[in-house]
Specification:
By secondary structure, the protein is an alpha+beta fold. The chain is 42% helix and 17% strand. The chain has ten helices and 17 strands. The protein has a five-stranded antiparallel sheet, with no helix packed on it. A five-stranded mixed sheet has the order 10-9-11-12-15, with no helix packed on it. Strands 1-2-4-3 form a four-stranded antiparallel sheet, covered by helices on one side. Strand 11 and strand 12 form a beta hairpin. Helix 4 runs parallel beside helix 8 and helix 5 packs antiparallel against helix 6. It starts with a strand and ends with a strand.
Length: 436
């Protein structure tokens, strides 16, 4: 099992994993994930502290599946998006020669950017930590019972996993079959659902283009004549030789025979034909080189575009950009000082926003649709904090917030939970509350 810690450094939140013996043994995989920015994986940094190897995974502005779906159900659309993006990241890992079974498929370690819907997976070079059955148990416990299609798919996948017959490509084919049927049970038009599978095709194409370009960059520069393959040369060389032989034959006739006026006309026509046979391959060759050079230059210009769109699995694949579906302002970082006061009755004179803890679990933040209670305040994160019940006690958990969650002036670590008691002063961002 992982030994996990959470840490906040100025404006960044980190999930820290210690070496369980696999980091020192799998140096290649460790270096690949820590020194390369692979879209779809949590960015990681390798640090050596007290002679021990640690991996710092950045989780800023991201929430785990267990946090997002702790109090709400999962529908068919969310399931489809998840498995499509899982397939995409698995394909990309193959390009980097990384083991796809090292993706940690546990709800606490799969994160999502709630603004774009993009999933981020944690890669740790230990196949034993990847737990797909545990993930399916989570989906089964959270699936929307009213969505019969989602229930059927989740149980079907769980059955395949239990019989060790799970193949990700086959699951994606189920989704494609739904599109071919027109409308699904929820009445979604196939035109609307077609976007889900354009994502995968878009990503695969971009990935292939990207690695083709990288492979071309790694090959030595050759003479432009080598661009033409042997099959093409086998076609143009005989034409050119025929023209040269024809010109030689015409020279022989011109110097060794006296020709009549009519014969001289035929000779002129022969010279024209020989010139065409000799010059046309050369014209074609240089034209082909110009076109090929233009394509190489165009590929270089498109390299930056491919870098940006390598993993374009957001909500808007038509534009290869991931835009939030809701408009909201960016979180403004507030530099804290030691003398800041910390005051779930609001202590703010301008905003009397009381938080009712009668129905738990409850998440608060400023992104509508992602939280149970929306608080429109710039210092609040999109998903800021979560209130839950532990027996008879009520706990508060910080959800990787930018400006922090405080209890009696003490800041909670990212994803850390603490029991609150009557009289406690709670601060979310710069909003102050008192718990009675």
């Amino acid at each position: 099992m992982f030994e996990v810690k959470y840490y906040k450094d100025y404006r960044h939140n980190y999930l820290i994993l210690k070496d369980n013996g696999c980091l020192s043994e799998n140096v290649y995989q460790r270096k690949m994930v820590s020194e390369n920015k692979i879209r779809g994986l949590l960015d990681s940094q390798e640090r050596f502290i007290n002679g021990e190897v640690l991996l710092y995974y950045e989780i800023t502005s991201k929430q785990s599946l267990s946090s997002i779906y702790g109090g709400k159900s999962i529908g068919m659309e969310q399931i489809k998006k998840f498995f499509i993006q899982l397939k995409v990241i698995s394909d990309i890992l193959q390009k980097y020669l990384l083991d796809g079974s090292c993706l940690v498929l546990q709800p606490d370690y799969i994160f999502q950017d709630i603004a774009t819907g993009e999933y981020f997976f944690l890669y740790y070079p230990d196949p034993e930590e990847g737990n797909l059955p545990q993930l399916m148990d989570f989906f089964i416990s959270r699936v929307d019972s009213a969505d019969l299609e989602a229930v059927e798919v989740v149980y079907k996948i769980a059955d395949l996993i239990s019989r060790e017959q799970f193949v990700l490509d086959e699951v994606l084919k189920w989704f494609q079959d739904d599109i071919a049927g027109g409308k699904n049970k929820n009445g979604l038009e196939s035109a609307d659902r077609d976007m889900l599978f354009q994502k995968e095709e878009c990503i695969k194409e971009l990935v292939n283009d990207k690695f083709d370009i990288e492979n071309n960059k790694n090959t030595p520069n050759k003479d432009l004549g080598h661009v033409i393959n042997k099959r093409t040369l086998s076609r143009i060389i005989p034409i050119w030789l025929l023209g040269v032989l024809g010109a030689g034959f015409l020279c022989y006739i011109m110097y060794f025979y006296e020709l009549s006026y009519k014969q001289e006309i035929y000779l002129t026509a022969g010279w024209i034909l020989a010139a065409v046979l000799i010059l046309s391959p050369a014209v074609w060759y240089f034209g082909y080189m110009l076109i090929k050079t233009g394509r190489i230059a165009e590929n270089k210009e498109n390299d930056n575009r491919i870098e940006q769109n390598l993993y374009c699995h957001g909500d808007d694949y038509a534009n290869n950009e991931m835009e939030p579906t809701e408009e909201y302002s960016n979180t403004v970082y507030v530099p804290w000082t030691e003398n800041c006061e910390n005051k779930l009755y609001s202590m703010d004179k301008k905003s009397k926003c009381h938080i009712d803890l009668g129905n738990l679990p409850l998440t608060v933040g400023k992104l509508a649709g992602a939280v149970d209670m929306v608080i429109n305040e710039q210092s609040m994160s999109r998903m800021h904090a979560k209130f839950s019940r532990a027996g008879l006690d009520i706990c508060i958990t910080d959800l990787n917030s930018t400006n922090g969650t405080f209890r009696n002036g003490i800041r909670l670590a990212p994803n850390a939970s603490e029991i609150i008691e009557p009289g406690d002063e709670i601060r979310l961002g710069k909003l102050k509350f008192i718990y009675r």
